[in-house]
Amino acid sequence: MTTRIYTPASDRYAGGMPYRRCGQSGVMLPQLSLGFWLNFGSESNRRKMHSIIYYAFDHGITHLDLANNYGPPVGAAESLLGSMMQTSLKPFRDELFISTKAGHEMWPGPYGEWGSRKQLMSSIDRSLQRLHVDYVDLFYSHRFDPDTPLEETLQALVDIVKQGKALYVGISKYPPEAAEKAYRYLAAHDVHCLAYQGKYNLLHRDVEENGILQQAATAGSGFVAFSPLAQGLLTDRYAGGTVPNGSRMASGQFLRPEMLTPQLMERLERYREVARGRGETLAAMSLAWLLHDERVSSVIIGASSIAQLEENLKAVHRAPFSHEELALLAQS
Ligand SMILES: NC(=O)c1ccc[n+]([C@@H]2O[C@H](COP(=O)([O-])OP(=O)(O)OC[C@H]3O[C@@H](n4cnc5c(N)ncnc54)[C@H](OP(=O)(O)O)[C@@H]3O)[C@@H](O)[C@H]2O)c1
Description:
Layout lengths: L18 E3 L6 E3 L1 E4 L10 H13 L4 E3 L10 H11 L10 E6 L14 H15 L4 E6 L8 H13 L3 E7 L3 H13 L4 E7 L6 H4 L2 H8 L2 E5 L21 H4 L10 H17 L3 H10 L4 E6 L4 H8 L9 H8 L2
Parallel strand pairs: 3-4, 3-10, 4-5, 5-6, 6-7, 7-8, 8-9, 9-10
Antiparallel strand pairs: 1-2
């Protein structure tokens, strides 16, 4: 298949997308970043996936978030972006901030997942090959490994930076105590932890309650929010309790119809009412709510169509939240 010549929008930095400093670092991230978790697998329509990526870049989304295992199958998302990095996106490497991760199931056998030096070192090399880049901008330890000495995982991150394979490193889904050790260890080895990546949305606020959000800020690390729309629950995708064909819930792997309980539907309706009052959709308001906290450096959205992306981009032109709105959104 031939890749069309791509000319990015000349006004892509003309003020639409605001950028936020990622912790105490030199890196500015777009307030909305594009995630490659489930929407960029090998079975999806390639032309459509390319269009979503181009649309994102045309609108100032410079940060693309991947992982070794994103697809399906594992590796497919990196391969897709890699094919573009060889062709249409090649001239724009310096404008892109590409992150990837290692730690979830990637290949069979004892070295294919978790946080050993073996897993991380092998994985970054394979990611660079699939992505067709000399380095990634940010490399994350994708999850805390309770069985590997933390120092082994962290030293691998340090060495990956020192070998020039990643410019920055980060951690994802680490419990607070391990995160604290990670911030300290990396700093003591002259490598700043650029970001903590954690699940955060109106329905899942653990990072507020367990201190992760503030801990990252105190350490000078950014906080990057994933699954900001609770995989589609915080949108109109399942309004009225219907499960459309082709939706993430229809595939049943990470979202299941039984999650649509009467309690959740009632809560979503209350949130939708607040959104209506602001003249926003539930999706745009949910993203705006995350960005209203300055400690959130960037929000990584997933989008399976340009229409979704277009709707979600409205979150960057949000009105401030009133005390009343915040109080209503604080109710579970
Ligand atoms: N560090 C980690 O462990 C981790 C874990 C999960 C995710 N992440 C990162 O975070 C990214 C985002 O996660 P996520 O995909 O769960 O994010 P999300 O934004 O919460 O969910 C994305 C899904 O919501 C639906 N959606 C999005 N916008 C919509 C709209 N305007 N109207 C209706 N439906 C809409 C789509 O579902 P349909 O597909 O049904 O259309 C889309 O695929 C991932 O790609 C990945 O980069 C990281």
